[in-house]
Amino acid sequence: MENTEVAAATAKNNLEPRTLTFRNKIGYAIGDVGNNFLFDMGQLYLLNYFTDQVGLPSAAASMVFLIAKIWDAFADISVGTWIDNRRNIGKRGKFRPFILWAAIPLALLLIANFSTPNFSVTGKLIWAYIAYMLFGTCYSISNVPFGSMIPTMTRNSQERSELASYRAAGSNFGLMMATIAFMPIVTSFSTKGMGYTVAVLIFAVCGVACQWISYANIKEVYKAPAPKKFSKTELKKSYKALLKNKPLVALSIVNVFTFSAFNLKLAVQVYYCEYILKNTTAESWLGFFSIGMVFVSVAITPWLTKHFDKKVVYMMGCAIWAAADIAGFFMANSTFMLVFLTSIAYLGDGFTSSLNWALISDCVEYGEWQSGIRSEGLVYSAFTYFRKLSQAIAGFIPGIVLAMVGYVPNQTQTASALLGIRGLMFIYSAVMAVATIGVMFWLYPLTEKRYKNIVSDLTARRQKKAAQQLQPEYARISD
């Protein structure tokens, strides 16, 4: 009787128990440090490697990103479906084994992307397509389970926000180290080609180590039984449920905006520092201060979400981001101004990146409440499907724009080319940040109050279902 009363009080007040230790949070953060050591090399430097080292035309190089990322998007959906329908779940859990076993293949494929053989242009393009598509598929196998784990680690809303902040901190630390350390390693060698190979090798090894440390320090608290084998009809219902999940649809749309803007800026800043500022060391300063500012937003996001809806904090971050980038287009003519204004922009972006993983976990609960179907892997992979599309956009647009404005590698650029680089760096992201505010305001339906009501209702449903399942057993005992 006492346990029933406690459960009822918990449901009434939405006080889901706190299940995470500090070790779990740090372990999850380190996992995303490893993810970024392995993943960010492609987003930051691969386009520049293709155009300035391998000698691929910028438009052709951009097509590699477009095709490979569209492929990755479908790979995410396939991996999510596979994970949700796994039946032979061992003692390591439903998600953790993927983090362990995918690490080394992922590292080897990363090295292959920055080790293009001296083929013809056609041969180099074929190598680029195959290597990057295989890398993306392997990354899906590693990253979809990693992101899908949050609902199994905790059901406490505030704790999910905290865990998302830790993950964002790990992600941005990995990104900061990649931005600060990678190019100095590259330029320390007599040829940039050799420098790229050594730098990628170092980050690949560190990435594997971080993923294995993460595997050892995170756990799945809520272990669901292996699901029954779904029929095609049931799978169709699951996919239809995704389309009815309004928060998921809205969050996916805004991530196309924000994530494409973020990744495009990362790809273009190499060109901005070299050709507009004529100071390649500016990129290290940019990485240290601007990515460092994300840690500030990550640190204060849990406090903000205690006082405001996550939706409001998300829009506030985009407003800061847009204002700083508009100013940057006109004023970032020195290393100091670029670093200062980009730091403010990344402060705003930090709110969105911190909250994405908490919001997607909320979408899992909403989906179960709305349709009766709970599918962490499918929801997360649908979300990452749109993030991969945003990465395709971020890789495709710079190459096309650079070709249109007459960019020539390793040469003094024309005024048209310089204006194109400046616009890519600031205007695109400012427009996307404003568009995000509009979508979140009009289309994202979950407020904190509504989310708590949904969780409370789900808890009551589960208790009712459990009671109904026990009734036949009680009847048998009575007989």
TrEMBL record:
PROSITE patterns assigned: NA_GALACTOSIDE_SYMP (PS00872)
UniProt organism field: Paucilactobacillus suebicus DSM 5007 = KCTC 3549
Keywords for this protein: Cell membrane, Membrane, Sugar transport, Symport, Transmembrane, Transmembrane helix, Transport
Record localization: Cell membrane
Organism taxonomic ancestry: Bacteria, Bacillati, Bacillota, Bacilli, Lactobacillales
Entry's Gene Ontology BP terms: carbohydrate transport; sodium ion transport
Membrane-related topology note: Multi-pass membrane protein
Record-given protein name: Sugar transporter
A cellular component term, taken from the record's GO annotations: plasma membrane
Pfam family, one: MFS_2
